[in-house]
Model the fold of this input.
Amino acid sequence: MFDIVIIGGGHAGVEAAYMASQFNLKIAIITLPNVGIASAPCNPSIGGVGKGQVVREIDCLGGIMGKLADLAGIQFRTLNESKGYAVQSTRVQIDKVRYSINAEEQLSKIKNIFIIKEEVLGISGSDDMYSVRTTCSTWNTKKIIITIGTFLSGKMHTGLEQTIGGREGVSHTDTLSDFFRDIKMVAGRFKTGTPARINKQSIEYSLLEEQRSDSHVESFHVLHGTNERFLEQKSCYLTYTNSETMRIIRDNKERSPLFNGQIDGVGARYCPSIEDKAYRYPDKDIHHVFIEPESHELNTVYPSGISTSLPRDIQDQVLSSIAGLKKSKIEVYGYAVEYDVIDTTRLGRTLEHKDKKGLYFAGQVNGTSGYEEAAGQGLVAGINAALSNIGKKEFILDRDESYIGVMIEDLVSNIRDEPYRLFTARCENRLYIREDNALLRMYPYRKSLGLAMNIDNYGANYVKAFKLYLNIITSTYLSTGHKFLLDNKINVLRRTSLAEILKQSSLEPIITLEKYFNYVGIDCDLRLVRTLAVTMKYDGYIAKANSHLEKLNKLNKHKINWEDLMASENISFECKQRIERIKPETFGQIKLMEGIRPASLAAIAGTLL
Ligand SMILES: Cc1cc2nc3c(=O)[nH]c(=O)nc-3n(C[C@H](O)[C@H](O)[C@H](O)COP(=O)(O)OP(=O)(O)OC[C@H]3O[C@@H](n4cnc5c(N)ncnc54)[C@H](O)[C@@H]3O)c2cc1C
Done:
């Protein structure tokens, strides 16, 4: 008998298992034998805008994604470097073969995790007593976490060719769709796609623009050194589509499964295929194509920006029209995959089914897209399934404290009509929810879980040092003529606090604070210097935003009893129907729900004030 069975060994499943295993429970991951653990079927990278924040949150809560990304990192970059610190994010190009091998090795070392490489054929049971039937056996368990990605009624398309399965090379008949139909969880059909993989020797690199790693990028894992690299670093290369590329695509519209009616699933608006770009923007011919390394151990590269499901002969023509790719040889053709997603409004913020105790869902099957989103949900489901097993209070991350909290609340409050991706604009509190302060934000949550792990000393010291140095910064005053100010050509009109000096728009706050600490002989971790300096820089804005948010949050966090609302005469019948279906727990959740009319919302708010 297992305490928790996780179905699926993708990014959600791995994070769920890794977190749950820290509670000393007996965990199984049951996953398809022909799919690598934590494999990357699309872009070979971890992080990015909004997503880098999630990876750091996972890492600071004791998860594994950040560590794996560092160990397999072959290029490190800071995105949005020209923009404000709040929206800067780390992106790591990974060696996807190493990443998957490392993930399996790390999990295999944990003695209470059992990796079972079999297909799950069926699920039965209810309320903390489930059976999972696989090709060779039946496993009993108290909790199940379902993380089956794009495999629920998955169908792949390349031109007219259609194959049943969740990803290239894994054609299999989906056996779990009956279970999902029985529990009436399927909410819709989404699609995603991937570009062709090109033989790396067939590219004319001299015709492309080289993009090297940035020189200074903080590792994801807090215990890895700044700029610590574990593998040889590789460059990416940039090229562009042109009028000939787009003409080929536009001339073959009737052969595109996305536009000839063959594909029904809805794709991610923020990750369009090259067909989408060609037909939706008929006046634009030039689009970026980043040639990204996939692995030291593979002879292929990933051309980011041209995901496609066009027929093979058209894919050949498209690539050979692009500078540097004229002689390119395709090793694996691009394809789109359509798959079913579930109704996440039937889940609570722990990701447990509201009516089926002990059944949790995480990852792409919940209608999200992206490795980081999947891992963030896996972490939440894994921790909560474990806490429920040992009879402890649930673990909820708030949306004003974390990107993971934003994502979970968005997911459980609305049925999605397109794949959900995280980006900074989804977050109301993004000046505060930054990469640089993830440890400060997450450490209290981690502590509340009572888990002992290797980051604990570092975390506790970091929080202590932050408070200490913050105090020094706010209580240090420098006057005109002070040697530090003269040496660094900093002007002040009167005696001014170091905190105010760091806000001067002409100064780079991180460099200035680092110089000041050197000047007074304070030996401070560079990561902490960054967090302190950026915190000071945004201090005024955050305080202002916080005072607005505080008022809003008071209302948003108000617990509501949705059953009471059914009796109200001031709430419309349609709104009641939606409330009854979603069973929101807080006012904030009702506010996020689609179709709740302002008058009904005002009536509900009125009952709380
Ligand atoms: C073609 C394609 C293109 C994509 N494009 C992008 C993109 O551009 N950008 C982006 O961010 N993301 C993209 N993704 C999505 C990304 O791969 C996922 O978001 C991420 O991998 C989801 O993680 P997951 O853990 O939810 O599922 P997956 O990583 O898909 O893992 C699912 C797991 O479930 C297992 N499984 C399924 N059925 C069974 C069964 N019956 N029994 C046992 N095990 C089972 C599989 O073995 C697999 O390990 C793409 C995915 C695909 C397939």
Remarks:
- The chain has a mean pLDDT of 92.
- The radius of gyration is 25 Å.
- The pocket of flavin-adenine dinucleotide is lined by residues 7-13, 30-32, 35, 41-43, 119-120, 147-151, 166-167, 175-176, 192-194, 271, 337, 363-364, 369-371, 374 (CB under 6 Å).
